[in-house]
Structure formats: C-alpha cells, structure tokens
Design brief:
Length: 340
C-alpha cells in the first residue's frame, strides 16, 4: 500500500519543488541566437509582462579525470526571484563571484566535489577549452545542470554582455495573446508555458502509473485479508479444544471470541509500524533503482499514505475477525471435547 501511494506523493513533491519553489516563471523564452541586453527591454515592453530575468545558455562538455558529460552551462543574473537555486532545505542559494555550481547529479556523474577543478569544452562559437573551480553543489531533482553568474561566464567566453533568453512573469489575462505574439517573432526559437508543461507531464505520468497503482492496491488488499484471516483461522484450529472448554465451564461466546480477536488485533497493531518501516524501505529501493541522469525521485511518503495503508490492515483485521467469529460460534462443543 505504501508503494502504491508513494508514486503520487513523490511526483507531487517533485513538481512542487521544481516548478513552485525553484522555477517560478510563467513563460521561458529562448532566442535563436545570442542577443544584446536590448532584447530584454523589448521583452519588458510586451503586453502583460511583469518581470524579466535574463539567462545565457552555453552547450558544454564537462571533464573530470576520465569522466565526461555533455550538458548546458546556464549563466544567471545576480538578483533572481523567478529562477532560483535551492538547497536540500528548500532555501535559496546565491551564486558565488566566480566558479561553477553543479547539481548533485552532475557532481556524482563526474565524481567531483566542491573545491575541485573541472575542464569545460565549449561547444559553440570559438569552442574554447576552460578550467573552472567547482564553487558548490546544489540539490536538484531534475537534470544534470551547471550554473554560473553572468559576468564571470562572459569573461570566460571572452564575449560581451549577451543573453540566450529570459524568464518572464506574466499577467494571466495576457498569457494567451503574449504566447501567440512570441511564437510569431522570428528571433524567438522556443516558448515554454510552465503550467502547460506541468499539466502535460502530469498526464503522461498519470497514464503510466494509474494502472500500476490500481493493481498494487488491489493485490495489497487481497494479501492483507488473506494473511490476517489465515493467521486467525490457524490459531482457531489449533486451540479449538481450549475454546470449547472455556465455553463449557461458563464463558460466553463473546468472551471466548474476544480472546482470539484480541490477540489478532494486538498482532495487527504491533505489525503496522513494522509494515511502515518495510514499506519505506521498498520505496527507497524504488528511488535508487529508477534514478537517472534526467531526474531523481524524492523519497517522500505523505502521512495520509501511511494512514491509508494502516487502515487497509485494520479493515482486513475487522473483516477477518467477523469471519472467524462465525466459525467460532459453529464449534460443536461435545464433538470437540470427545476428540483425543
């Protein structure tokens, strides 16, 4: 049950972290070629645009020892509220005056730590070869990325003040006409509307996980009922003579039933915390097994998921108890006591 509820919990947190806390822009505009900062003024004048933050994207190949990885080095401005880098505690990180910031994923791929020096092959323009210090490592859930401040990036590339695109905060009333206008602009290579991208991502994931979740939840429920019922039935069969003796010496049916059902309920209550621990362990195994260069699944199991799993076990106990109580009432006292 924890595994069936883990996927939506992790997905919700991933989307919240990535698109509500870190990337808070409404629209991302990518230009076909690098432009001067005057392009920012042109974007600011568009209808509905409330805030603009520039970025410079450079295709690069990182090298460290015998390892290498191709990605994009993103140059960002000093003051940012739309595109933020966050640590594991969800707090913003300021870019250092020099050096490069690597995501945890990229740092693990290269095997480099903060303070090390990486080599960078620039894959556009003059295709420079650079050596840059790793100034820090940032926690991210999607992509193997690298970041620098715009000014030192320009100096490394030996270029002027240029940008590759911008992050926009937009008035929702103007989003649709602004999107059409940007798509019709020759200098614009791509326009990404965040909420549409998130919605499309949710639909793709929902199609792939809904069937799996349904099967997992169904079989988990069947297993819970089967295990608990069989445990109670075996106990009843093994102690049938004891229960018949209690009935003969004056115990009521309810009192005899409470002995068996009380033990069953106590075992279930003791087993639930153990089941939580095992379930979280399986979720951790899923996190490790599905980790890739593009994204990593966060280990997030919400309280309601754990309560739902416990509720299934409790309901299975109640149903099993009712079935066992019927069998207990049908015991033939004389026949049982006559048996050796």
């Amino acid at each position: 049950m924890l595994l069936s509820g883990f996927a939506p919990d992790a997905l919700d947190y991933l989307l919240h972290f990535q698109f509500n806390l870190a990337q808070r822009q409404d629209i991302q505009v990518t230009l076909k070629e690098v432009h001067s900062p005057r392009a920012l003024h042109d974007l600011q004048k568009l209808p509905g645009v409330q805030q603009v933050e520039p970025f410079r994207a450079v295709p690069v190949r990182f090298r460290y020892a015998h390892r290498h990885y191709r990605t994009v080095l993103l140059g960002l401005g000093d003051e940012r509220s739309l595109f933020r880098l966050l640590n594991a505690r969800e707090r913003p990180i300021r870019l250092p005056p020099s050096g490069v910031i690597l995501s945890e994923q990229l740092a693990e791929i290269l095997g480099v730590e903060a303070g090390g020096t990486v080599e960078i092959d620039v894959l556009e323009g003059e295709k420079n070869h650079l050596r840059v210090e790793v100034a820090g490592i940032v926690s991210e859930l999607a992509g193997a990325n690298a970041y620098m401040r715009l000014d030192p990036l320009h100096r490394l590339l030996r270029e002027g003040d240029t940008i590759s695109g911008a992050f926009l905060a937009v008035d929702p009333r103007f989003e649709e006409p602004l999107y059409r206008q940007l798509k019709a602009t020759p200098a614009v290579a791509a326009v990404t509307v965040k909420h549409l991208a998130v919605e499309q991502f949710r639909q793709i994931v929902a199609r792939n996980t809904l069937l799996m979740q349904s099967f997992t939840a169904f079989f988990a429920t069947v297993l819970a009922v089967g295990v608990i019922y069989n445990t109670a039935r075996i106990s009843l069969d093994e102690r049938r003579r004891e229960f018949a003796t209690l009935r003969v010496i004056g115990f009521t049916r309810w009192e005899v039933a409470m002995i068996l059902l009380g033990e069953l309920g106590l075992m279930t209550l003791l087993a639930i915390p153990l089941g939580w621990g095992i379930g979280v362990g399986f979720c951790w195994a899923v996190v490790v097994g599905f980790e890739s260069d593009n994204f990593r699944i966060p280990l997030v199991v919400e309280r309601q998921t754990m309560l739902r799993a416990a509720l299934v076990a409790l309901v299975a106990t109640v149903v099993s108890g009712l079935l066992i109580r019927r069998r207990l009432e049908q015991i033939d006292l004389v026949e049982v006591l006559k048996s050796r």
